[in-house]
Each structure stands twice: as C-alpha cells, then as structure tokens.
Amino acid sequence: MDGNGTLFGTLSGNTRTVLHKFSVELPKKHGRGGQSALRFARLRVEKRHNYVRKVAEQATIHYIEGDRPNVGGLILAGSAAFKNELSNTDMFDLRLKEIVIKIVDVSYGGENGFNQAIELAADALADVKFMAARLRLPRHTGDR
After folding, report:
1. Phi/psi at 119 (5° precision)
2. pLDDT over 50 at 140, yes or no
3. Is the pLDDT of residue 137 over 60?
4. What pLDDT, in 10s, does the model give residues 83-124?
5. Rounded-to-integer distance, Cα 77 and Cα 137, Å
6. Nearest one of 83, 94, 82 to 47, comparing CA atoms
7. Alpha-carbon distance 61 to 21, whole Å?
8. Are 99 and 69 in contact, with CB atoms under 8 Å apart?
9. What's the predicted TM-score (pTM) here?
10. How far apart are CA 86 and CA 56, in angstroms?
11. Long-range contacts made by residues 8-13, C-beta under 8 angstroms, separation at least 24?
C-alpha cells in the first residue's frame, strides 16, 4: 500500500497469488498559498482518509469469509505512512488487526513491492509455518 495504489495478495507455499489491485490519484503536497491553502490541505487529508477507508473495506472483502479470516496472517507493506495509518485506524477490521504478523517498509509498489515484502517478512512467515507445524505435531505423536 502506497500513495500510488494497493495490491492484495496471498502466499501459500511458494505460490504467490494477486487477488486484487487498484491505483489511486492522491494530491501531493501543494505550494499554493493564500486564502485557498487551508481548503487544499483539507481536501488532501480527506482524499487520503477515503483511500485508507477503501483499502480497509477491500481487505475485509478479500480476507474475511463468513465471520473469520481466510488467511493465517497478514503482512502490511508499503513505502509511505499509509500502512501504519491503516493498522491504527478503527476502519481496519479487528479480526484482521489480530492476525497482522509484521509491518514492513518496501521500496516499490505493485508486484515488485509484493515480492520485496515477502522477502523482508520471511522470518515472520517462517515463524507462522513453524507454529502451525508445532500445533499439528502433538496430535500425531499422541496417536501412538
């Protein structure tokens, strides 16, 4: 998630799947002064807020099925402060907040950023696999 757009994807084993992506045109910081400066600033903040809301709604659509998350964990990645805004906002579903594993800074957006986020979060993803294997292990050894 960055100022240019957002990509939603999943990682299962070595298979990367892009679920949805969209781009956004957000106003940059402006150099206009005078009487309109406050209006321009307010419009900029409002558009950023609407973008974060749209990302939160799309995350719920893609990662919640029925009443439960359909993924084992979430990695929030981006090159701007949007990922932190998303994780701290009330618009982000509580069921998804609970499964956020890591928040990482990436240099790229889109699919390149998706790949970089996977690399940077490899240690956290390995911990998830280890815990899942550890939770399954006692059941198999207890059968003997």
Report:
1. -65, -45
2. no
3. no
4. 999 999 999 999 999 999 999 999 988 999 999 998 998 888
5. 31
6. 82
7. 13
8. yes
9. 0.83
10. 7
11. 8/58, 8/59, 8/62, 8/63, 9/114, 10/71, 11/118, 11/125
* Residue type, position 122, single letter: A
**How far is residue 23's CA from residue 50's CA, in Å, rounded to a whole number?**
13
Angle 79-84-87 (CA atoms, 0-180°, nearest 5)? 130
Q: How many residues does the chain have?
A: 144
> Whose structure tokens read 């701007």?
80
- What pLDDT digit, counting tens, does each position of 24-81 carry? 998 887 766 677 788 888 999 999 999 999 999 999 999 999 999 998 889 999 988 8
Q: Looking at this protein, which amino acid is placed at residue 109?
A: G
> What is the residue type of 43?
L
Question: Whole-angstrom Cα distance, residue 12 to residue 20?
Answer: 16
Q: Which two tokens stand for residue 71?
A: 């993924």
Helix (H, G, I), strand (E, B) or coil at 78: strand
pLDDT band at residue 143 using 50, 70 and 90 as cut-offs: very low
Which alpha helices (H) appear in 64-121, and where do they start and end?
82-88, 94-97, 110-120
